[in-house]
Design goal:
CATH superfamily of the largest domain: Response regulator
Helix content: 40-55%
CATH topology of the largest domain: Rossmann fold
Shape: elongated
Oligomer: single chain
Low-confidence stretches: 1-7, 150-166
Number of strands: 9
Number of helices: 11
Length: 239
């Protein structure tokens, strides 16, 4: 039974270049009981038809591919995260899980900025992929705090109007943080603990805790990792 309470109600489109990996993804997803069907899209051809006819709960996409058929007789050649950006631009409502190599700082940030719900290494466990797909179908992120603190280093918080937030709820898009909350959020994105943030800002640990609680409440998230991801999607954190 899946997270909605209906056995096998999730539908997934899998855009995986390698045929063995494609078969493996299908087998692991359908064997859980939470996914009702998996439509494989080899070499990204037929992606539009699959998405528009299946209305999938989530798209699992590997960055190893050569081209995307745009449905109008034109082939768009892509590489890396270009296809992910293309898909997100055409289907902003689609919950996307990216499978790729271990990310560089730029790739991880771009994946978050594009509004994807997970970035998984190709060596990710079977259960990890299944969990990420189920989480994505319910709009939950799969970005570990360890990955963010390791990769997102030297980021800055931009005090300007968000420009990459069309896929977020109106309530979250209209959220504003105070200058001090933005300072705290910037330090959280660097992996700082409350104690280190307190030392740097010369305030008490409790004051930092209060700021973090306010940030989580305003961004409608439950932990620090999700707050950083949400801030990236809003355009507040940039490399």
């Amino acid at each position: 039974m899946d997270v909605t309470g209906r056995p096998g109600s999730l539908t997934v489109v899998a855009a995986i270049a390698d045929p063995i990996s494609r078969l493996g993804i299908e087998m692991m997803l359908t064997s859980t009981g939470g996914v009702g069907s998996v439509t494989n899209v080899p070499e990204m051809s037929g992606l539009i038809e699959a998405v528009e006819t299946k209305a999938p709960s989530a798209l699992v996409i590997d960055t190893r591919f050569g081209q995307v058929n745009d449905g109008r007789g034109t082939t768009v050649r892509t590489e890396g995260l270009q296809a992910v950006a293309w898909v997100r631009g055409r289907y902003p409502w689609l919950q996307v899980v990216v499978i790729a190599r271990p990310p560089t700082e730029r790739e991880l940030f771009e994946t978050m900025r594009l509004g994807c719900f997970a970035y998984l290494s190709r060596s990710c466990s079977e259960q990890g992929i299944v969990n990420a797909v189920i989480d994505a179908s319910t709009c939950r992120f799969t970005f570990s705090s360890a990955m963010i603190s390791r990769q997102i280093v030297g980021v800055t918080v931009r005090r300007q109007t968000p420009t990459q937030s069309g896929h977020l709820s109106p309530e979250v898009r209209e959220t504003t943080l105070t200058t001090r909350e933005l300072d705290v959020l910037g330090l959280v994105s660097r992996g700082r603990s409350n104690k280190l943030i307190a030392n740097e800002l010369q305030v008490s640990d409790q004051t930092v805790k209060n700021y973090v609680t306010a940030i989580l409440r305003k961004l409608k998230v439950t932990d620090r990792t999700q707050a950083v991801v949400q801030a990236m999607r809003l355009g507040w954190i940039a490399p």
